[in-house]
Amino acid sequence: MAPPQSNFIRTTRIGCIEVTSLFDGWLSLDGGAMFGIVPKVLWEKKIPADNLNRIKLALRPLLVRTPQHTLVVETGLGQALTARQESMYGVQRGAGLDEQVRAAGVDPSSVEHLLLTHLHWDHSGGACRKVDDHFVPTFAAARYWVNRREWKVATKPDNLQRQSYVPESLTPLRGQLKFVPSDGKVVPGVRFESTGGHTENHSVIWIEDGGEAGCFMGDILETTAHAPLPWISAYDLCAGESYRAREKLWPKLVERKATCFVYHDPVHAACKLVQRDGKYDTEPIT
C-alpha cells in the first residue's frame, strides 16, 4: 500500500509557543490490534488496511519553541529495531530526529529538553542514535524527561512487555535523565499529565500559553479515528484504565478547544476533539 498523501511538517502557535509537527517515517501495524474490540467493518472506513491487515501509521515527534526554551516531544523509532523487525513492521524511515530538527531551522545542539510520554520503541527509539555499534544520546545537551516508573519498566521489562521496549537504546540516557516532578511541570507552558492505560505510566503533554492550549496525545489517542471512547487499541496494557482516562481527559480537551497533536495518524498531524449528540469525534486541523 502506497503511503497516504499528507502535509507532514506543520507549524502552529499555542499563544506565543511555536509547535512544529515533525515526521519520522512510517510504521505498519495490525489494524485489528490497533482498534481492539471495534469491528473491522467500522474501523476500515477510517483507515484502510493492506493485504496483511496492517494499517500505515505515521511517526510525528514535536518541536516546541517557547520564548525561553527549545524542546522535543517524542523521538520516532530511530535505529532501535533490527532489520528483521523493520521488515515485519513495514518501517519506512525518514531522516534522523536531529536532521528533522535541523530542517525545521533549529540547531540540534540547542535542544534543551526531550519529553517522552512513554518508552515503547516507536516513541523512544530515536532518543539515542547509533555510533559504530553502540547507542549515544541524540541530543548531547538535552535533559530527557520521563516518568520514573516507566523508566524502570522499560529498562527491565518483564516477559509480558519485553517486545515493547528496547532497553539498550535507552540506558545511555542515564546521565541526562530527569524524572517528571509531581506537578508535571518541565518549563513554563509545558507540563506532563499522567493518564496510564496504554502503559501503566503513560502521560500526555500539555502546551499552554495566553489562554490557549495544545495537548500531545501520545498513545491515548493514536489517530484521529480513535476519538470514540470505546475505540481503544488492543496494545493498551489496561483498556479499562484507558477508558477512564479518556472519560476524564476528553471533556477538558473539548472545553478548552485544545489543539490535539496526534502522533500516529497517517494524514493529519493535529485535530480538535468535538462532541456531537453525546459522542466524541475529531475535526482535523491539518
Describe this structure in words.
It is a single chain. The protein has 286 residues and is of the alpha+beta class. It has a single domain, classed as Ribonuclease Z/Hydroxyacylglutathione hydrolase-like (Metallo-beta-lactamase, Chain A). Helices cover 18% and strands 30% of the residues. The protein contains seven helices and 19 strands. The strands form four sheets. It has a seven-stranded mixed β-sheet with strand order 1-2-5-6-8-11-12. A seven-stranded mixed β-sheet has the order 13-14-15-16-17-18-19. The longest helix has 17 residues. It is globular and about 50 Å long. It starts with 9 loop residues before the first strand and ends with a strand. The N terminus is likely disordered.
Structural class by SSE content: alpha+beta
Report the CATH topology name.
Metallo-beta-lactamase, Chain A
Rg: 17 Å
- Order of the strands making up the biggest sheet: 1-2-5-6-8-11-12
Report the uncertain regions. 1-7
Provide the helix percentage: 10-25%
Average pLDDT score: 94
Number of helices: 7
Distance N terminus to C terminus?
Answer: 22 Å
CATH hierarchy: architecture: 4-Layer Sandwich
Strand content: 25-35%
Total strand count, please? 19
According to CATH, the homologous superfamily is Ribonuclease Z/Hydroxyacylglutathione hydrolase-like
Overall number of domains: 1
Q: What is the C-level CATH assignment? A: Alpha Beta
| Helix and strand sequence | EEEHHEEEHEHEHEEEHEEEEEHEEE
Q: Major sheet, described briefly?
A: 7 strands, mixed
Shape: globular
